[in-house]
Each structure stands twice: as structure tokens, then as C-alpha cells.
Amino acid sequence: MSYLVLARKSRPQDFNQVVGQVPVVKTLKNSITRNRIAHAILFSGVRGVGKTTLARIMAKAINCEQIANGNPCNRCQSCKEITAGSSLDLYEIDGASNRGIQEIRELKEKIRFLPTSSKYKVIIIDEVHMLTTEAFNALLKTLEEPPEHVYFMFATTELHKIPITILSRCQRYELKRVSAEDLTAHFKSLSEGEGLEIDEAALRLIVRESEGSVRDGLSLLDQVFSYGETHIAVEDVIEVLGLVSRDIILSITRALLEKDPAAALLALQETFSFGVDLKRFTTELMNAFRTLILCKIPGCQELTDIPPQELSEFKKLAELHSHNTIHMKLNLLMQGVEEMRYSPQPRLVLESCFLKIIQADDVVPVSTILAKLDSLLAGNTDLPESTRPPVQKKKIAEPGTTPVKAPAQENSPAPSPTCKKPDPIEQIPDPQPDIEEPPMPVEIQTPAQTPGNKPVPRPHQRDVRRDWTGFIEHVKDRKVWMAQDLQRADRVKEVDGELHLHFSDQANCSLLCQKDNTRLLTEFVLDFFQKDLKLRFITPRKEEGRITDNEDSPHKLRQKLANDPLVLMATEIFNGQIGDIRVGPRSR
Fold this sequence. Notes:
five-stranded parallel beta sheet; three-stranded mixed beta sheet; Rossmann fold; alpha/beta; Zinc Finger, Delta Prime, domain 3
């Protein structure tokens, strides 16, 4: 007899042997005991989670002669025939090879007849999403009102490809990925049944590679059993499955974070020497950075599916670096992996990505940078000597001489000692030499200095017309809507301590004219222009109690043309904007 792989030998024969899927199993068992079985059941989920297995168990339970607590007995004639695959009343077809309308017509002809040896006929269609649209349409009426002796069981991995008309006629069960704990317990019991001993770390590695699929894990476990002896270690699993050692992954991760290019490239060379697939390697490396990020987030360490000893190593490494730094380097690694997919030299791209990650500096929060900047501006003495602002020293005149005046202009160059002889008037001795008290020393103060020995910058004299755009940006950082209203002003000018704002439409400045907004805008003007200007809003209809614009003025005509519906529609269609508007005889 040929060898039977673990995936077939260990296939569950009743609901109690199903790994995981506790809610689905409970619902199916209750529907059998309470006689509430749906005539069409659809199982969906990823590969290897038990869709076809549950369909077969349901087929046995429906026809079982000695049902007990919803489980088939596996001893009656019907159960034995279904288990052996020789039942004439169980039709199990593949949707990929029987996807046409002709196959569905033949199936409909078969289900018209009563079952031969069992109580019901059960139709199992695996990968039902592969049926054509015509085949689905031909199945609709039969699926909605099937004969009383027929049950349909569907299984699919791509639920979104099934028409909604089919989904509405089925009772759906969505199977989830099997948890790592359930897989570990299941694989450990199978290993003991085979008379083999496997390390806990090796078992966890197989569980991680199975990605929640029981069938994938059993295939890997069968391969490892064929390679190893009575005792299977982690090294055996790594060598058989072509995986990357966790020590190498951890060393590369540490080298990328600690900026050690030699260690990172040498570890990468060691990985290539094993013939490891680049896609698998980069996936493991990105999972390592993900583990570091989860270690930095409180309460998320349970999401890391790695052994406790390895988790402690990642925790120690995560404590040495900030969350932002790890996240930034993970983003750089993901960008490099994306570029590597389309490059003819993927190894070179990966090495370049490693160097880019190593050269990236640690992320400093913006709040820290702003705090340092505030300290520099405030002249904080706690800062290093190289970062302190320069302090000008006081100049003291010598006794018996008259202090020399400082230059009046701030930008005038200092006089050179060889350019010009000093004025003899400045060298006249003190007219009262008999006074014993020496004259008090006098400090020379320039306009850029104060008695407190702190430099005071002269305010930049801003002009209203020249710097109006900068003022709007200044207001935009504080009040966006106010900056938008100011942009609607036709012209601005400064007249005798007043800031005149001309608006073509009074509605454009209605909010600005409110008392609170006017006070706030006055403060903005004072902060930016360093002038205490009084605001004055001038509109065409109201200026000093008289009308300044009429309906026939060129300005009014331009405004009317700009707001014309046809003009607005044209700018919207062609994604343009209104430029120069010309009116009068010369524009015709």
C-alpha cells in the first residue's frame, strides 16, 4: 500500500477532531440535533482551514443512522461508505473542471432521482467560485427550491467572486485562520503519535510558516519527519525548509539600527550563501522590525508570535531606540523591497537599501527641536558653549581721555587705524588737571546694544504695499478665513496712520468689519508692520457718506463680467482662471 501523507491520514472524521473553528462546529452540531439543517451551505476561508472536511462531516452526519450529540458515528454503513469515498449518494465535484452550463445540467438530471442507499443525496462542489455565470444562473432555481432529498455543500477560497444571487440562497460559514496555539497542540500530538520528538522552537517555526493553515503545516511537518531522526531540532527545520536563521535576522536588524554597515553586509552574504529566497528573507526582516514596533507599544506584545526568549532579545533592542526611528527605518526597508521586485539586480538594490537605512539619522521630535530653538533665542546659559548666542563686550574708556562717539549708522564700517589720522580736537587734554578724582569710566553704547548687554535687533521697516503678500501669509497661519477675506481686497494703502482697505463688494468685508475681528486684525497689523495703524474699510457704495462708484464705471463693469454665469462656466469647464478684463471702446 502506498504511503499516506499526514494531510490525508489525519483528516478529521467528526466534529470533535476539527482543529479550531469552534463557533462554526458548534452551530453545525446544533443544527443537526435540532433538525434545522439548511438545504444549501457555503464554507469560505483561506486554504487548509477545513472547508471540504466540514462538508464531508456534514454529509456523514445528515445520513448517519446512529447520530450522537450531532457527531456521526463512523460505524454505520453510510458513514463507512462516505469515509471510503464509495457512496453513490455523495457527489463531490471540482468547480474548476466542471464549470460549464452542461455539467450543471447533468447534475440537475442526477438529483431528480431518489438516493439509493442513504437517506439524502449530498452535492459537494469545491472551488465553487470557478463556475461560469451561465452555470450559476442554471443552478439558481434548483438551489432555491431543491428536492427534499438533496443537500448542497459549497466550498470556496474567493467569496467575492460568487454572485450575490447564489450567496442569498446559502447559509454562509466563514472559517478563520487557525490560531498558533491550536496548531502547536495539534502538531505536537501528531508528532507523538508518529513516535518522534520535536523541539518547541522547531515546532513554533513550522507553525509560523504554516500561516494558520492546517494543511500547509501538515505538509511541512511531513517533510521534516522525512529528513530528521527521532529527535528534530531547530537547525533541521531551517535546513529542510530553506528558512533564515532567527539569529541572522536579529543580527541584521541590530546592525541596521546601530549603524554597522560591515555587520549588515556580512550577515547578508551569509544569508545568500544558504540560497535563501530574497522574498522570504525580506519578509522575515520586515517582520522583525514589526516586532520591535509592537514591543514599543504597551499592550501589543501579545501580537508577536515568537518564542519568549526571542521576544526578550527584541525588547532589549527596542529599548535602545525610539519608536519614530524604528518606524522610519521600516519605511525605508519597505521602499527598498518594492524597488527590488522590479530590478534586474535585486541583491544590489537590497545592499543599497541597507546603506540608506544605516545612514539615516535618528528621528528627533519637533517639540525637542523647538525647545532648543527657544532656549537659543532666550540666551539660555545651560546650552553648550558652541550653541550660545554671541554676547558683545562693553568698552570702557581709559581715564584722562574723552570717549569717542559710536557711529550713528548701524551698517557703517569701523574706521581703520591706518586710513585717517585722529582729529586733533579729540586729543585735547582735560581742562581741569588739578582735580584729583579721575573721571568716571564711560561705556560706549551702540544703537544695537542696551545697558543690559543684550543685543536688540532693529525692527525691519515693512511697507504696506510691498509686504502685503507676506502679511496675508502671516494672517493665514493664525486665521485662515481672515486671510481669504483679505485677499479679496482690491487695493490697500497707508494714509496718515490709517490702513485703507478697498473692497469692490461690501459682502467681502462684512466679517472683517465686526468689532472682535477688527480688533484681532489690528493686532496682526501691529505685530507684522510694527505700526499702530487704524483700520478703515472702504466699499464702492459707502465712503464718507457718499457713493463713489456707479453702475457704469469700468470697475463695476469688470466685476459684472467676472461674475457672469457663462464666464464662470467656461472657467470651470476648461479649468482656467480669469485674467485681464478689458472694457470700453478700445476692447471692441
